[in-house]
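Let's practice the habit of predicting before peeking. Look at the sequence and jot down your guess about where helices and strands might fall. Then scroll down.
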Amino acid sequence: MKQTYYLKLAYEICGCSRGYKEIELNLLDSTSISKAYEMIQFLRLLLMNLKQEILQVGFKNQIDEIEFFKVIKPQVLGKLIFYNKLYSIETSCPIDIVVKNKYYHKHLEELNLEYKKYFAYNEFYKYYNAKRIDKDIEYFTLGKTDLLIGINSFIFELDALFSTYYDYKIARIIAHDLLQNYLHEKIQEYDIGNNSISSSNLVWSESQNALIELIYALYLSGSINNGKGEIRKIAILFQQLFGIKLLDIHHAFHRMKTRAKSKTCYLDKLKEVLEEYMDKT
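Done guessing? Here is the structure:
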């Protein structure tokens, strides 16, 4: 299949290369309601354009067709489902921290029940997790859906020219995993101040902006996990270490870019005091 603009974007989202929208979202705080909404609009438009391309261009061969419905489309659709769910969760989220933590726990419990009901004992889920390929032609090429095998009724609502039914099932699996990771992170974030923090005697004595400046520098320099670490996880780690609750790191970072003098005043200070110490010793 011809590598068109929208197909290249889809490949980036699949992780073949880091898509600019995903980079932007990681940098600008993926919990932001406005950013989740932006991703929903972006992914919906991408799916529409991918559909037009498939209908107009088609597939070069069966290998390309299988790759599209097994890898590319499910990643785009799965993230669309994820961000839509994230948006729904965050727009209904309570303000009180204690209640908020219970709120995230409740959603995680519901997600675990969903796993037991729809995934744990499902044969296709086992097939996908085992990375099998022996039934790929049946599962991921157009026109192979068997309506007599008892599949869900929503199959009748799918576009037979742009779906194999099983691409949607993979998208659900991807969305489930993303949402599970997200909820675990949020719970971990709001557990700050409990066990590990209460016993810590390390206190951050600089400003919040100074810590945020350091976090972004470590993230953007690729100093943690060879550059593959998410900025949210790095921020959570520092919050746990120092028992501090950082507010909106996204807006704080963008305010730094408008500083009158140095944009990196804390990093400049670190460099200065370190060099002074080296000169004395």
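How did you do? Residues 239 and 245 are 6 Å apart (CA to CA).
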